Q: What sequence folds into this?
């Protein structure tokens, strides 16, 4: 999920390159969304674990999920959700999604992961460097998500942000507050360790605390109680893997002995299921993508197979799964199978891969070849995740 540099020496001149203009992350493809009137924020202390029956009302695209606990549901996620591989970015090889985050939400994705960097004093969604691929500001990203949540009041959304430049919770919190999305923030009963039983989706919806936010590498700040340190609650499998070598072994946090020990302690499991090429500069593996994202449970390297494998090894289904190019598969079908539901109310998105019509580049006007040719980046092996 994070960017793994097996050996990367980047000179300061990289940051002085003409920066690719923000490609808008997911905003370039967003359709207009009607904004519903927001309700008053309900304190997390009023959120109980009980929930009333909901009949045919769908929560996260299924009535069957309303009365399930948040940590007893598999939430399918878009890895690097702001970094697009489409016409707006010249079909950059460093893009991890064909469709933007609000399209992803409408298609059933309920976990959005993104990398955050500090660029000229502003929190930006940048892929390794803002000179390489800039997905726009965190504020714009959050504003669009809030607009979607305003218009979809029965949906619970999870954010996972990578704190690439070790910024404080206050720095993030100011952006969450300024965009108004903090009004949806949920604060669990424990903020310094795993929680065995999370509220049901219906409880979160009724209380209008429908946004769960995890931030990697951050120190908890009670002034911003809904911004949660990821590894106090979640463990992850390894990232940067090559097809078909996925596994369910815990990779982070390092202090936990095993995946089963983490599950027993109340941690929620996150499966990183996206493959990279094993080349000088590792980029998302497009060649094996149809199999990587397949819901098939009898195929080596498929999403369905790993979902089933982790469920068997952990004696509990994964709470989160991250994939590249969520529409292929489609990936969300694996989550539906693990949750045992038939989804309703989703926007149909093509499962085809998008292809470029002409030219190729790693970013708008900036490519790995150009950077290498200029001697800006010395590389033995770079994993672009």
A:
């Amino acid at each position: 999920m994070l960017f793994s540099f097996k050996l990367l020496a980047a000179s300061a001149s990289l940051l002085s390159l003409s920066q690719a203009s923000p490609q808008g992350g997911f905003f370039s493809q967003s359709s207009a969304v009607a904004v519903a009137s927001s309700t008053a924020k309900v304190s997390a202390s009023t959120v109980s674990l009980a929930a009333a029956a909901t009949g045919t009302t769908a929560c996260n695209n299924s009535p069957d999920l309303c009365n399930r606990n948040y940590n007893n549901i598999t939430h399918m996620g878009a890895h690097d959700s702001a970094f697009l591989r489409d016409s707006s970015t010249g079909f950059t090889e460093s893009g991890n999604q064909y469709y933007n985050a609000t399209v992803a939400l409408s298609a059933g994705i309920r976990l959005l992961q993104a990398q955050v960097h500090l660029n000229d004093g502003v929190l930006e969604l940048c892929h390794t460097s803002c000179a390489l691929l800039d997905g726009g500001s965190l504020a714009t990203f959050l504003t669009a998500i809030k607009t979607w949540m305003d218009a979809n009041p029965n949906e619970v959304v999870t954010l996972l942000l990578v704190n690439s430049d070790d910024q404080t919770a206050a720095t993030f919190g100011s952006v969450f507050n300024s965009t108004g999305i903090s009004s949806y923030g949920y604060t669990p009963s424990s903020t310094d360790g795993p929680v065995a039983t999370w509220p049901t989706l219906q409880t979160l919806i009724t209380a209008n605390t429908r946004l769960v936010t995890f931030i990697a590498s951050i120190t908890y700040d009670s002034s911003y109680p809904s911004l949660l340190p990821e590894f106090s609650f979640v463990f992850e499998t390894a990232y940067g893997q090559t097809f078909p070598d996925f596994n369910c072994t815990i990779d982070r946090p390092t202090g936990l002995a095993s995946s089963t020990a983490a599950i027993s302690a109340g941690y929620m499991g996150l499966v990183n299921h996206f493959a990279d090429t094993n080349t000088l500069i590792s980029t998302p593996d497009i060649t094996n993508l149809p199999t990587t994202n397949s819901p098939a449970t009898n195929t080596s390297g498929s999403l369905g197979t790993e979902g089933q494998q982790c469920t068997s090894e952990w004696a509990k289904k994964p709470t989160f799964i991250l994939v590249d190019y969520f529409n292929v598969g489609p990936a969300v079908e694996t989550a539906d199978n693990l949750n045992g539901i038939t989804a309703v109310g989703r926007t149909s998105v093509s499962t085809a891969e998008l292809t470029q019509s002409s030219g190729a580049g790693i970013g708008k006007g900036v490519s790995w070849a150009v950077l290498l040719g200029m001697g800006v980046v010395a590389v033995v092996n770079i994993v672009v995740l």
